[in-house]
């Protein structure tokens, strides 16, 4: 009878054997740099949802503007600031504010008090090359940009009860929102009190 350890070892070996040779090269290169093992855990406070707030609780029909741009933030005190796509708003942290929260702004809303958001895509056409530097790394989304020479966005309110045109569904908005274009959405906030999140769906 096989022990649990033997089953796990054989499962990992079997999974590795079905990978292509090119994929194995990138996995080996990725595994050769165990950055996480060199970091001291639990030395940094995690950001909270209240670090960057937009109060939308009483302004029925108000419009808020968020910008999607390249930002630099520190995700660990022992690492240099990282560059990635981020959501910004007027009065919040700027593009290069390494010690600011890396979380997007939090909207504080009230049930049945709807508002509008305009997501401005301020990402330059080839900004993805500044974020996804290793096209063959495991988990890289580099290939999603191959058909279009620009970083497109499509913001989705995850779990929100919204109209199809405002959902950020890639099947509803096939072309997404290119560089320099605005995605305008309406959130009626008819859901019961809950915590929702928004994210890019493209």
Any chance you could write out the topology, listing elements then pairs?
Layout: H1 4-17, H2 21-31, E1 53-55, E2 63-73, E3 82-88, E4 106-108, E5 115-121, H3 128-131, E6 155-158, E7 182-187, E8 197-200
Parallel strand pairs: 1-4, 2-5
Antiparallel strand pairs: 2-3, 5-7, 6-8
Defining traits:
202 residues; alpha/beta; Immunoglobulin-like; 2 domains; four-stranded mixed β-sheet; two-stranded parallel sheet; 14% helix
Strand content: 15-25%
> Number of folding domains?
2
Structural class: alpha/beta
Q: Specify the CATH homologous superfamily of the largest domain.
A: Cupredoxins -  blue copper proteins
**End-to-end distance, in Å?**
47 Å
- Helical fraction equals 10-25%
Tally the helices: what do you get?
A: 3
Q: What low-confidence regions span 5 or more consecutive residues with pLDDT below 50?
A: 10-24
CATH topology call of the largest domain: Immunoglobulin-like
Strand order of the largest sheet: 3-2-5-7
Number of strands: 8
- Mass-distribution shape: globular
For the largest beta-sheet, the strand count, sense and barrel status come to: 4 strands, mixed
Mean pLDDT: 80
Give the radius of gyration.
21 Å
CATH class of the largest domain: Mainly Beta
């Amino acid at each position: 009878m096989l022990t649990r350890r033997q089953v796990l070892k054989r499962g990992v070996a079997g999974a590795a054997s079905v990978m292509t040779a090119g994929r194995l090269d990138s996995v080996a290169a990725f595994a050769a740099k165990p950055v996480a093992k060199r970091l001291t855990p639990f030395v940094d406070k995690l950001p909270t949802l209240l670090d960057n707030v937009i109060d939308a609780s009483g302004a029925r029909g108000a419009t808020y503007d968020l910008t999607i741009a390249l930002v630099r933030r520190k995700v660990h005190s022992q690492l240099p600031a990282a560059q990635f796509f981020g959501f910004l708003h007027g009065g919040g942290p700027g593009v290069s504010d390494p010690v600011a929260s890396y979380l997007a702004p939090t909207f504080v809303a009230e049930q049945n008090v709807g508002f509008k958001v305009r997501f401005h895509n301020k990402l330059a056409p080839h900004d993805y090359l500044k974020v996804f530097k290793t096209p063959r790394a495991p988990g890289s989304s580099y290939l999603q940009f191959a058909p279009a020479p620009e970083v497109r966005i499509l913001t989705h309110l995850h779990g929100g009860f919204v109209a199809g045109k405002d959902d950020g569904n890639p099947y509803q908005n096939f072309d997404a929102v290119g560089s320099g274009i605005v995605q305008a959405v309406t959130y009626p906030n008819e859901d019961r009190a809950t915590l929702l999140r928004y994210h890019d769906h493209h």
